[in-house]
Amino acid sequence: MLKVYVYDARSGTSPIQRLAVHQGLGRESRVLFCGDRLLSSGFTSKRAQEIHVLEVGKWDKPIHTQEYVSATGVLMPFYDPDTKLVFLILCFQWHPMASDLLAVALSDNSIEIWESKTLTRKRRILSHTAAVMALGWSSDGHRLASIGKDLMLNVHQPQLGDECMVAQKKKDVFQSDLFPDALVTWRPVMTAEEWLAGSLKTPQFESLMPQGVSALARPPVVAAPARSLEKPSLPVSEHTRESKVQNSWSSKIVEDRTLEQDDMEGVSEEEWTEAL
């Protein structure tokens, strides 16, 4: 079974935890911290891709385990601290001519082409019904070939593909639902001396709203009124009016308490005695 060692670099060189995570021996794996979670990507004993998610400090058992398809390549996880999303990539291939274009195969059977400098998605291709196992560009970069677990070899021309969905944005306001507070990576939170001394400062997040742009208005949070289990009391006048209405209707309804079996002939005592 594959083991993961967790170290505290400030306390020593010995691991503070040894975790047995994946049963696929001799296979590569990936480990990634996602906030207060530890994500491990590896293989099962049947060579199927799987991920384990553990809570930092509670190493007894994973809080989530998910198994994918049988494959030779490990799922490569990438974590976005702003949106708290994990992206699982099966394989990727750089463009042979444009050094900033990258084709990636995701775990949802899709292929995406990204521009690395601007971090924008250019194309999204849905052509496989199973996991994409390999990608390859032609020498001139005009065609992209993909092979999937569905036993299909597809050749794409990304230049002729459909544009991916782009969310509509307003220029005069800042939409916080599209741009959440970003992790501060351009300014250190603590010095190396503070970290070695055991400082536990939390990461900082800042809004990306530029100056001179107003924030998009959000609807006010209105607390739901408390529901009372007691029947609301009515004024005396309402009780009086309600009772009058009931009495007026009761006087117009002919009450009949007779039953159909009352007119039927019953069984005599002699017949009951003979039956017993």
TrEMBL record:
Region (Disordered): 230-276
Family: Belongs to the WD repeat coronin family.
Biased amino acid composition, Acidic residues: 261-276
Role played: F-actin regulator involved in anterograde Golgi to endosome transport: upon ubiquitination via 'Lys-33'-linked ubiquitin chains by the BCR(KLHL20) E3 ubiquitin ligase complex, interacts with EPS15 and localizes to the trans-Golgi network, where it promotes actin polymerization, thereby facilitating post-Golgi trafficking. May play a role in the maintenance of the Golgi apparatus morphology.
Organism field: Trichostrongylus colubriformis
Matches recorded under PANTHER family: CORONIN, CORONIN-7
Superkingdom of this protein's organism: Eukaryota
UniProt name for this protein: Coronin-7
Family matches, as InterPro entries: Coronin (IPR015505), WD40/YVTN_repeat-like_dom_sf (IPR015943), WD40_repeat_dom_sf (IPR036322), WD40_rpt (IPR001680)
